[in-house]
Specification:
The chain is 87% helix and 0% strand. By secondary structure, the protein is an all-alpha fold. Helix 1 crosses helix 3 and helix 2 packs antiparallel against helix 3. The protein starts with a helix and ends with a helix.
Length: 83
């Protein structure tokens, strides 16, 4: 019985990983981290005041968190559907 539960859990986790990969591909290839890092690099080389640069960096950090939370929410919805 325990072995069957473990197999079921592993299958669910694999399915969810595949769903995450599909969602990332549909949202732009999962390259969001690279795009966000590129924004950070550009911000550091742009001639802005320290205040503007700090504000920009905070907003980029917020964007990164929102993208992550969106993916988590979608995955949770998928989990609920499977249960």
């Amino acid at each position: 019985m325990r072995a069957r539960e473990d197999i079921d859990q592993q299958q669910r986790e694999y399915f969810l990983q595949q769903q995450i990969k599909t969602i990332q591909d549909e949202l732009g290839g999962g390259g969001q981290e690279q795009e966000i890092e590129e924004l950070r690099r550009k911000a550091l080389t742009t001639k802005w005041s320290v205040e503007v640069r700090d504000t920009f960096m905070k907003e980029v950090d917020k964007l990164s968190v929102h993208i992550r939370n969106l993916l988590i929410t979608v995955c949770n919805l998928i989990i609920c559907k499977l249960c």
